[in-house]
Design goal:
The complex is a heterodimer of chains A (159) and B (157). Chain A has 159 residues and is α+β, with helices and mostly antiparallel strands. Chain A contains 5 helices and 6 strands; from the N terminus they run H-H-H-E-E-H-E-E-H-E-E. The longest helix of chain A is centred in the N-terminal third of the chain and has 13 residues. Chain B folds into 2 domains: 41 residues, Orthogonal Bundle (Arc Repressor Mutant, subunit A), CATH 1.10.10; 89 residues, Alpha-Beta Plaits (2-Layer Sandwich), CATH 3.30.70.920. Classes of the chains: A alpha+beta (159), B alpha+beta (157).
């Protein structure tokens, strides 16, 4: 079994607060947890050091940057050439996520694109690869919901 | 948006906790300018919020899965009159622990959800729970174990 980094309830509360607002004031979180601001700061540093928290970032609206179309792809590939096709797909600047997967398709990818016209070009480009079979596309409709808070922390130390 | 806005956004994308004072120093502008620019970007919805990026593997999730859902026609049509309101299926999905992205889609399926699973048993359990949501006609699952972070610029989980 893999070993899980030691995190306790205070760590989880820090993560929950930062998931909602990464700029949250450590002194406010400290007050909520009944510990010092320094403790919060140290704990967050530790979580970054051991890789639980990869960092903090702002959530941008792709439309503000001229990207009007988010789409996912399910790609069926000759299974001996998955790695090669992944490199081929990942090379496209619009691809923001690309992974081998198990299921009907053996590659799953997400792209952020200027418009549907570009989506068509990208799809055609992928299909031109000789080892690529079926390419399924789904355009994400506006109200995409992101819920990072749905991560459950199963392995926290009970005090 | 001008170059200053983009520079502020770049800096915050790298580390959302960077102090405005630090950004001001790096860009040789006043901290007030940074605050004002940030406030405006928030108000315009260019910056929708900020979050901490978690590595699911470090907290016990071994796999990620995408659930591609076909809704029964009645369910899809019922929502057409008010496309701003998420459908009932979407609402149920997003309330499920482990589902971290859910969206209506146009194309090969009606709804797509991405979730994290502790192991295969958990994955099957998630599939069974989703299958029981009323209005779901069909469900296709693909999963992966290697890359379990989605943290690109415009789509952060």
């Amino acid at each position: 079994m893999p070993s899980f980094a030691n995190i306790d309830e205070i760590d989880v509360r820090i993560i929950r607060a930062l998931q909602k607002d990464a700029r949250a004031n450590f002194s406010h979180i400290a007050k909520d947890c009944g510990v010092s601001t320094d403790t919060i700061s140290k704990r967050f540093k530790r979580m970054k050091r051991n890789g639980i928290a990869r960092g903090t970032t702002v959530l941008l609206n792709p439309r503000s940057f001229g990207y009007d179309c988010v789409s996912s792809f399910g790609i069926r590939v000759d299974h001996l050439h998955v790695g090669e096709v992944i490199d081929f797909v990942d090379e496209l600047p619009e691809i923001v996520f690309c992974t081998p997967s198990l299921g009907r398709h053996n590659i799953f990818a997400i792209a952020v694109l200027k418009d549907v016209g570009r989506l068509e070009q990208v799809k055609e480009h992928i299909k031109r690869h000789p080892k690529v079979g079926e390419v399924m596309t789904s355009i994400w409709v506006d109200e995409t919901q992101l819920c990072p808070e749905n991560f459950e922390f199963q392995h926290i130390k009970k005090k | 948006m001008d170059e200053t806005d983009l520079a502020i956004i770049d800096r915050l994308t790298e580390d959302a906790r960077t102090s405005f004072r630090q950004i001001a120093k790096e860009l040789s502008i006043s901290p007030d300018t940074v605050v004002n620019r940030y406030t405006t970007l928030r108000e315009q919805g260019v910056i929708r919020g900020s979050t901490v990026v978690i590595d699911p593997k470090k907290i016990g999730y071994q796999a990620m899965a995408v659930f591609m859902i076909d809704a029964s026609p009645a369910n899809v049509i019922a929502d057409e009159s008010n496309s701003a309101a998420p459908s009932q299926i979407l609402e149920k999905l997003i309330r499920m622990p482990s589902i971290i992205v859910a969206t209506k889609t146009i194309g090969d399926h009606d709804i797509l959800a991405i979730g994290v699973a502790r192991d295969f048993e958990h994955l099957i359990c998630l599939r069974d729970i989703i299958m029981r949501i009323p209005g779901i006609k069909d469900l296709e699952v693909s999963f992966w174990v290697k890359r379990t972070e989605i943290c690109p610029k415009y789509l952060v989980i």
